[in-house]
Amino acid sequence: MLDTKFIRNNPDLVRQGIAAKGESAALDEFLSLDQSRREKVTEVEQIKARRNAATQQIARFKKEGVDATAEIAEMKALGERVKELDAEVRALDEELEHIALRIPNMPDPDVPIGASETENVDRGHYGTPRTFDFAPKAHWDLGTDLGILDFERAGRMTGARFAVYMGLGARLERSLINFMLDLHTREHGFTEVFPPLIINYDSLVGTGQFPKFTEDVFKLEGKEYYLNPTAEVPVTNLHRDEIIDGDKLPIYYTAYCPSFRAEAGAAGRDTRGLIRMHQFNKVELVKFVAPETSEDELQSLLKQASRVLELLRIPYRVLQMCTGDLGFTAAKKYDLELWLPSYDRYMEISSCSNFRDFQARRANIKYRPEPGARAEYLHTLNGSGLAVDRLVAGVLENYQQADGSVLVPEVLRPYMGVDVITRV
Among 37, 161, 171, 261, which one carries the catalytic annotation? Predict the structure, then answer.
């Protein structure tokens, strides 16, 4: 959520930011309502000043034995008017919040201008995609042939966009999760948490999923509860409505979470395999930082996430998102994309975002720079570190052998207990 004063004082800048993101918002209505609210608040303050003066006059009249009937009647009328105005201000506050929650975050000044993903900026590559001396298979065929992925049974028990991991496939998924959690906690300084997978409406508002993206989240029937769409939501809300001592920042959290997403806007996209599922696993990275450090923290977050791919020796590239592909909540964002031979291109496996104070305002998360100082909104960041199922796809496809087996990346062998995945 943007600061109301910022919107009021910079309407043209906000309008440009909304347009640059390809979003829409009722900005003119917001400004009109805000003006009306300020006028009513001013009137309330003026009436209260008159009422205070009248109170003193009535007290003086009573002391002097003067009839104060007219003044008392006026006091009551002023009191009724204050009640009316207070109710009108509360109604305006609700309308203003309704609009404010739908105004996107502003892009940072150094974010590339562009209308769509085709104008994202390549910021570098790691590794060289492998040249095969045989016809490589897609991960859904590899997994099925090896007996470690079963899409058919998952479809029968649930439906499309689900998978069953079997045998060494299940162990590969678990090994990647443990490897990433160990890396981020032992080498990168993150504290591991395992939050609830069922969250409430306010938590989704806090991180910016609601009210704009309700169709992408699974709701529990009969309750105001929702299935976690990404660990960013529960982990960021760990500090909702809190004031954190400044000397405790930065705070780093990592969380493994099963996530659930309706993918309402993705019909027909990536329908095969593990790339776009309704249930998927992620290891998430979340940071709470002081505002002056958040740009440096974004760069370190990008390195922390990309370190996973480097240790696994999977080629990847870094893209900086242009304004049109930045998303609703981010002020600045980079995507990590790993190489998938079956697609013959790079595919997203992590988005590393700086939200500035956008989420902190929505979730009311503040910090006190020093003892006795006024509390201020901190900055939040998050990124996948990494998306597990897509990483499974990356390992299977990049490490496949001509005989249909899959080598286990060296860094994973202590977790897997085997060097090669073969059909048992």
Answer: 261
